[in-house]
Amino acid sequence: MIKEKINTTLTFEDFKTEVLSDYKLATISRECSLLGRKEVLTGKAKFGIFGDGKEVPQLAMAKAFKNGDFRSGYYRDQTFMMAIGELTIQQFFAGLYGHTDIEQEPMSAGRQMGGHFATHSLNEDGSWKNLTKQKNSSADISPTAAQMPRLLGLAQASKIYRQVSGITNAANFSVDGNEIAWGTIGNASTSEGLFFETINAAGVLQVPMVMSVWDDEYGISVHARHQTTKESISEILKGYQRENNTNGFEILKVKGWDYADLVATYEKAATIAREKHIPVLIHVNELTQPQGHSSSGSHERYKDSNRLAWEKDFDCLRQMKLWMIAINIASSEEIEAIDLQAKKDVFEAKKAAWNAFIEPIVEEQKELVSLLQKIAETSKNKERILKLIADLNSIKSPLKKEILVTARKVLRLIMNETGKEELSLWITSYTNKTQEKFSSNLFSETDLNVFSVEKVLPEYSENAKEDTDGRMILRDNFDAIFTKYPETLIFGEDAGNIGDVNQGLEGMQEKYGELRVADVGIREATIIGQGIGMALRGLRPIAEIQYLDYLLYAIQIMSDDLATLRYRTVGKQKAPLIIRTRGHRLEGIWHSGSPMGMIINAVRGIHVLVPRNMTQAAGFYNSLLECDEPALVIECLNGYRLKEKMPLNYGEFKTPIGVVETLKEGTDITLVSYGSTLRLIQQAAKELLEVGIDCEIIDLQSLLPFDVNQDVVKSITKTNRLLVIDEDVPGGASAYILQQIIEQQDAYNYLDSKPQTLTAKAHRAAYGTDGDYFSKPSIEDIFEKVYGMMNEVNPVQYPSLY
User: Which among 142, 165, 438, 442 is least surrounded, fewest beta carbons within 10 Å?
Assistant: First the structure.
């Protein structure tokens, strides 16, 4: 293990210089908070949430933070980001203004409000930087405690890199697993289940995580007595304290205004976590919040005079000043000079940030005004156009919205005039250019996206029989994957020792070890978090959620964190996590759910793949491991024992993503579905053929992305009829599928009958075989629905059944 060298020859002058530098930076951060609030109140910024009152402990944390380490924090950590050199004053204000230039606002290019921080893990082509050579911050999100699950994975990655050999490009991501994942959270947010789930999992896994709780006694206006038992998170977590021969945490407590003790505490925590891979919780209490929770209100409304007086006395900057004076580091005059210089520096940087933000927009304003003035000269609506020009010109600090609104209003006034074409082109160009700044990078825009993977068919021996259990195809393909990709690992409930509940991983733990094929506890949110964190550090995790119904426990983390990661970093971070689960067509409420409408509308930014058999599923895993995007693969619960052909090229065949497959050609009606339901449709189609109805059957294979070659509408041009069959509730995934076909593919041009859906009932599937039959589409339901549609077309040939 490589250990950090400690400087044991620090002189008092060196110490003094370091402390004064820290104080100056903390003061600059405080001035940013104070001036930032004013910018919101004057209308230059929309909303502000700042880190005032937390400056000194963040300085201490930054001192212990090394290259290769990762932060997973929340929106109070501006001082820390400044201290590690990843946030300038000007960038702070660019974030407050929502500057859409990634060079000016490198955290999110205005896609998140200020206070949400990230570093860049990727080169311009989407390839990884060497993360061991820089200080790293995973991209923040606002939902309280939602930074916790990913923190677990960031820490676990160090354990994997330390203990698993042969990982591809490991040197880019870790130096012997010495990296720490540093978490921060407000004390009130420790009431969230995600906090407790992560704390428990970290104690079990024993990973190098240092968790800081910034405790200022309040959650917005709600006091700790309403938040936390005993009003102390460290008190109620005492049972997690590690003891001899047990796992658990090291729990430390320190006052947030005590600079010297904070520095010592963070050094101690770093040593424990970095060398021994023992998680540490640091409860930083007696902190203040000088301006209250955010710019939307004042803390004087809910804090009494005694509390306000105490906060003034024990403000961490004031206490640091008193300490510096007491030990002769600086005089009060020297400190006052630092304070004055900080005010000046912050004001100048704020001014520069504002000018950089507003000047390009003013130029666009002038450009449009010039064009509109020319158009007005020959328009019959000249006076109305001049009025719109004057209104736009009167805006000293215009928004892009205000510019575009004016242009579009003028366009209405000149619909039949000569200037229409020029203005229309200007609006289109301006909209496209600006829209890109707000809408790019939801999915990968690099050469490693899912569409870069070439389809490879499964290969079979000449005498191959369809006599192999589907689970064995998955198992043998996973075996090939783990051999081919040493950075790949899989983990989930029952995934390890018994090889998952359907034995698709049978024997894999014995062959590849408990770290690469791992059992975990019942904690779906942090299973996904483990995957996100490890994927952020170059590993290729497959996180298994035992059943599709259980995905609801993790949907918030998938939606708010994983799905938005690439978007909110403008392509500067990625987490190509594969989520494996199983669902559909099992009997009972809790293991037969198909909440696909909920899922696909919550996880835009994650691909959603719905294979009908295990060969397809295996091909999806092979495809995903060749690209850099996250995906959810939903295996068919009732397909593990169904017979399929055994391929010869495990690990190599690839199911194309976003491409449909036509299972049966027909002339009368197009039937569209996915997953297990297709087996019912195929049987129904055979029975329909007996009465003269020839169905075309299309397997969507993936819902996100959807039919990129628009093959469904090509089918409809032939059949002129459409039925979407789905196990989700009415208006669930079927509504999405119809929207894609009718609106995006313009299929309405070719329909001779009303497009229809056949779905499950609005309730969950009742228990037992009869419950399934009366809750979800059956073969008879499909037959009669199609027959009824054909009856409408030709009632003589297809007389009514009922």
Answer: 165
Do residues 575 and 562 touch, judged by C-beta distance below 8 A?
yes
Q: Which residues, other chains included, contact 241 with Cβ-Cβ below 8 Å and sequence gap of 6+?
A: 248, 249, 250, 251
The pair of three-digit structure tokens given for residue 31, joined into one six-digit string = 């001035």
Whether omega for the bond prior to residue 57 falls within 30 degrees of 0, making it cis, is: no
| Burial class (CB within 10 angstroms; exposed 0-12, middle 13-18, buried 19+) of 763 | exposed
Tell me, letter by letter, the H, E, C secondary structure of 210-242. Answer: EEEEECCCEECCEEHHHCCHHHCHHHHCHHHEC
Distant-in-sequence, close-in-space partners of 157: CB < 8 Å, separation ≥ 6: 173, 174, 179, 181, 533, 534, 536, 537, 538, 539
Judge whether 242 and 313 are in contact, CB under 8 Å.
no
Tell me how crowded residue 726 is: count the other CB atoms within 10 A of its CB.
Answer: 28
Three-class SS state of 137:
strand
Positive or negative torsion for Cα 287, 290, 295, 301: positive
Which contacts of 161-166 are long-range, i.e. CB under 8 A and separated by 24 or more positions?
161/537, 162/277, 163/515, 164/486, 164/489, 164/513, 164/515, 164/516, 166/486
SS3 content of the chain, % helix, strand, coil (to 5): 45, 10, 40
Residue pair 591/549 in contact (Cβ under 8 Å)? The answer is yes
d(CA 555, CA 527) in angstroms, rounded, equals 12
How far apart (Å, rounded) are the C-alpha atoms in residues 634 and 611? 7
Q: Is 591 a catalytic residue?
A: yes
Write down the catalytic residue from 120, 591, 607, 763.
591
Report the alpha-carbon distance of residue 61 to residue 259 in Å, rounded: 11
What's the residue count for the chain? 802
Global pTM exceeds 0.90:
yes
Cβ–Cβ < 8 Å for 787, 801 = yes
pLDDT tens, residue by residue, 18-60: 999 999 999 999 999 999 999 999 999 988 889 999 999 999 9
